[in-house]
Amino acid sequence: MNPPPESLYAIRLEEILWGGLLMAITMAIHGSGMLLVLRTNHSINRWFESRKGLLAGLLPIIIATCMIMFVHLIEVAVWSWFFIWKDAFSNSSMAYYFALNEYTTVGSNFSLPFHWRLLEGLIATTGLLTFAWSTGVLFTLAQTFQNQQMELFKQRRKKDHTKV
């Protein structure tokens, strides 16, 4: 009687090294992307300086959100390219689908070959870290927007009370 293949799995140094490298590449892309998001947001806000309305305040956040999503999609592509290179999936569409589902911690019906199983957890961990970073960036931008909008509200209210 042969043992099930799952019981034969052992973590390999190669998995750990590749996983660490992929995580480092992902974090480098993310760091660069978040700086670009913040710089772009600053430039857009300077351009809208004279316009203080709701849309002028929301537009930079919407653009930042789209940019953050794009950065995440690039990071997923890095993992999927690795899976294609290592013949873990037969086509790029399947590799990207798997990587996206694992990166977002949704999980997938598919699995990596046994000798790469550690990467399933590492991609999810990397996704959690980058989403936390993205959340921090969006929180900062949203807080600034909310503070500006509340200040405008107070100014309008003060102006209305002085008219009476």
Protein topology:
Blueprint: H1 13-47, H2 54-85, H3 92-103, H4 118-163
Give an overview of the whole structure.
The protein has one domain. It is 76% helix and 0% strand. The mean pLDDT is 90. With 164 residues, the protein is mostly helical. The protein is built from four helices and no strands.
Largest sheet: none
Number of strands: 0
Q: How confident is the prediction overall: mean pLDDT?
A: 90
Shape field: elongated
- Name the structural class: mainly alpha
Topology order in helix (H) and strand (E) letters: HHHH
Number of domains: 1
User: How far apart are the first and last residues' alpha carbons, in Å?
Assistant: 91 Å
Main attributes of the structure:
164 residues; mainly alpha; 4 helices
Summary, kept brief:
This protein is mainly alpha-helical and 164 residues long.
